[in-house]
Design a protein that fits this description.
422 residues; 23% strand; 13 helices
């Protein structure tokens, strides 16, 4: 049933390891392109190789205006801004007359640790023969660090810069809850419109797990570890051969509107946001995720959307590609939707932290609008502990709805039901 107060999606923007912009992104997805590359190799005797999905062809100068703003934007903020700019253009908003007070921004974000080089000069100034003198930091750091260094790296800077750029004077918020941040931001943006505090919201997410600073703090036994001579460098969720989380970087953004507002300005409606849900549960093992929370948010999202699991074309899984996390996710899924096809776009570009949910949702959305459900790349050997119906080939979508699922190792879970329009 079509309602004038439906929350609809009218613009899509994405900056990913396999394509910038939704057209290039879809082409890479359909071609089965994988963005995983070797990032570094340890120098110890074991020679362990670490893999990830970097964006190799991004230049913030192509998207960020005014150019002088670049000096107060870290790479992550530039990615987030660029995704929003692409979504704004995709929604044909550049020439639209909008009330600034009725436009808002919500972003899913996370810790932005900055680059090693930003602090290198100050550390050298406080060091003697390779040893750090902490007592000297107070007098030396301000001489060697860019004065606006912190502003370049604050998690709420993406929402701030986007709001300034589009003159959005309505609600502006940032949600930093690791991998569920995207879907929580999407839910918050929809609720803002439902509360009649805005007519239009730009909702996005940014994540980067591949910078040297962030890789230094990766959790052991969760992230991928491959022998140097390994031929299996991909992220393969639910496959018996998986070796752990493969990190990536990227940003995605959507334009959300009330249907009546979108129709009034002649916007093309790409999809309808039917429902959202989130909740927490206690992991049965440390950093193992919560199957109970996953099942509960799926049930709640389906109930609020007034559909059954059988009405879904597929479930877009988080797909960490790590043993305990995949088992927890599979358990939650099969308890609610044992006969529903499962896709996992982490197999194309890894886990992108707070942006994972947004980019995976966009992948399902643009494929769904083409009438397709895409496979998990490289999936060959089923794991008996993960009895989900993994999609192995490009298939025609027999339903217009899909469910996007996200969860964190600490037990937080979120789900969103989207209906694609053709």
């Amino acid at each position: 049933m079509v309602g004038v107060n439906d929350i609809v999606i009218t613009g899509i923007g994405c900056v990913t390891p396999i394509g910038i912009g939704r057209t290039a992104f879809l082409e890479s997805l359909l071609a089965g392109e994988c963005g995983v590359r070797r990032l570094l190799v340890t120098r110890d005797a074991q020679q362990i190789a670490y893999y990830g999905s970097p964006i190799s062809n991004f230049d913030g100068k192509q998207y960020v205006t005014p150019r002088k703003a670049l000096k107060v934007m870290s790479r992550e903020v530039q990615l987030a801004y660029s995704a929003a700019q692409l979504a704004w253009e995709d929604a044909a908003l550049a020439s639209s007359e909008l009330s600034p007070d009725r436009v808002g921004v919500v972003y899913g974000s996370e810790m932005i640790p900055g680059d090693h080089d930003d602090l290198a000069g100050a550390i050298r100034a406080c060091s003697d023969n390779g040893k750090m003198d902490i007592a000297a930091w107070g007098t030396q750091f301000n001489k060697h660090i860019f004065p606006l260094w912190m502003l370049r790296n604050l998690p709420n800077m993406p929402a701030c810069h986007v709001g300034i750029a589009i003159d959005a004077r309505g609600p502006n918020n940032t949600i930093a809850q690791e991998e569920v941040s995207s879907l929580l931001a999407l839910s918050e943006a929809a609720h803002v419109i439902e509360r009649d505090q805005a007519d239009l919201m730009v909702v996005g997410a940014i994540g980067s797990r591949i910078t040297p600073t962030r890789l230094s703090y990766r959790v052991q036994r969760l992230y991928d570890q491959h022998p140097l001579d390994s031929q299996l460098s991909r992220c393969i969720p639910f496959d018996l051969r998986r070796r752990g989380i493969v990190p990536g970087e990227g940003a995605g953004a959507l334009v959300l509107e009330r249907r009546s507002h979108a129709v009034r300005r002649g916007a093309k409606i790409l999809a309808v946001m039917k429902s959202s849900a989130n909740g927490c549960g206690q992991p049965l093992s440390p950093r193992g995720g919560s199957a109970a929370a996953i099942a509960r948010v799926m049930e709640s999202a389906l109930d609020r959307a007034c559909i059954a699991a059988g009405d879904l074309s597929h479930i877009s899984a988080q797909g960490y590609s790590q043993q305990q996390l995949d088992i927890a996710e599979a358990s939650g899924i099969v308890s609610v939707a044992p006969q529903t096809t499962v896709s996992a776009f982490s197999s194309y570009f890894g886990t992108i932290g707070a942006a994972s949910g947004m980019l995976e949702l966009i992948a399902s959305l643009i494929a769904g609008r083409a009438g397709l459900v895409l496979p998990v790349l490289g999936y060959e050997q089923a794991d008996g502990d993960c009895p989900v119906l993994v999609n192995r080939t490009i298939q025609e979508a027999d339903e217009s709805h899909f469910l996007k699922l996200s969860f964190t190792p600490m037990g937080h879970a979120a789900a969103v039901v989207i209906q694609c329009t053709m």
